[in-house]
Amino acid sequence: MRLCPLLAAVVLAAGCGPAPSSATSPASEQAVTPPDYVTLNSNAIKFRRGDLTLSINPAAGGRISSLRFAGKERLITQRDAKGGNNWGSVLWPSPQSLWGWPPPETLDTNPYQVAVTDTGVRLTSDIDSELKVSFSKHYKLGSLANTLVADYRITSHAEQELTLAPWEITRLPAAGSVFFPTGETGPVKGQFAPLPLTYQGNVSWFDYPASGIGPDNHKLMTDGEEGWLAYHNADWLLLKVFSNVPAQLMAPGEGEIEVYANGENTYIELEQQGFLTTLMPEQALQWRVVWVCERVAPNATPDELIQRARTLAGRARTL
């Protein structure tokens, strides 16, 4: 493979799978053959297979910058954000009380180092000077059609214990429906307006209003069950699958499931968090999230969508 100038210094490293929750030594560096679905260019890393095309931007926090499925862009992209930073899909440390606002630039917006692996790509941040953590993101396409497997690692470089949780934030168009199995705790809104929920049996449901939700920003933070969170808009379904977090192990002031809708009616955030974990110096936590994209009928009923989400979640757990 011929690398572009931007990535000419890329490190070729061994593949990445789920790692133990404690720190490990770096994999031995060696030349590898990247998967045939990976393309590197001067602006992005692209994955292409089947109906799915993903772009990852190493220069902007190693974030997922584009998701094209069945020929259509599905994420809020940098162009949509019009100079703002609320676009694509990113990883944050939780709880937010550790850092306030805005997110740490080292982890959220600064360039990440890139390594091509035999299964995908690994992107690694510098150490954040305030939080004393670094992020690693390994992305690959799963064997199930139209799936992305994200293996996240947060490593502590602090001199004392550090307690935190992983938090994935995905920006999507302000339309469609969000749903997830209802957990043990009721919804919390924080400093925002509440996000209105309905219930389909034991599944919590939010339909984005056709007239918009502004002018207030709305937020939902709660516990979930079964370890999945779904978004349906027109002809597609996005399912995120992850380890279910008991309510007592959620980060303080946060939720396993979070949904944010901005008052300008331009995007929503589909968010989920992992286990609250205490790390000793140089220890790391590992967290896997599987995205599944599926074609569905625009007029699919809630019961049909819930049944499909549960079926796909079961399959995703085999990856």
Which key terms come to mind for this protein?
seven-stranded mixed β-sheet, 3 helices, 319 residues, eleven-stranded mixed β-sheet, mainly beta, 23 strands, Beta-galactosidase, Chain A, domain 5, globular
Can you describe what's shown?
With 319 residues, the chain is mostly beta strands. The protein has one domain: Beta-galactosidase, Chain A, domain 5 (Distorted Sandwich), CATH 2.70.98.10. Helix content is 7%, strand content 40%. It has helices at 78-81, 105-108, 302-316, and strands spanning 11-12, 38-40, 45-49, 52-57, 63-69, 72-73, 89-94, 113-116, 121-124, 133-141, 147-156, 162-173, 177-181, 193-194, 198-200, 203-207, 218-222, 228-233, 236-241, 257-261, 267-273, 277-279, 284-295. The chain has an eleven-stranded mixed β-sheet with strand order 1-8-9-10-11-23-19-18-13-16-15, covered by helices on one side. Strands 7, 12, 14, 17, 20, 21 and 22 form a seven-stranded mixed β-sheet that branches. The chain has a five-stranded antiparallel β-sheet with strand order 2-3-4-5-6, with no helix packed on it. The protein is globular and about 50 Å long.
Q: Layout of helices and strands, plus pairs?
A:
Blueprint: E1 11-12, E2 38-40, E3 45-49, E4 52-57, E5 63-69, E6 72-73, H1 78-81, E7 89-94, H2 105-108, E8 113-116, E9 121-124, E10 133-141, E11 147-156, E12 162-173, E13 177-181, E14 193-194, E15 198-200, E16 203-207, E17 218-222, E18 228-233, E19 236-241, E20 257-261, E21 267-273, E22 277-279, E23 284-295, H3 302-316
Parallel strand pairs: 1-8, 14-17
Antiparallel strand pairs: 2-3, 3-4, 4-5, 5-6, 7-12, 8-9, 9-10, 10-11, 11-23, 12-21, 12-22, 13-16, 13-18, 15-16, 17-20, 18-19, 19-23, 20-21
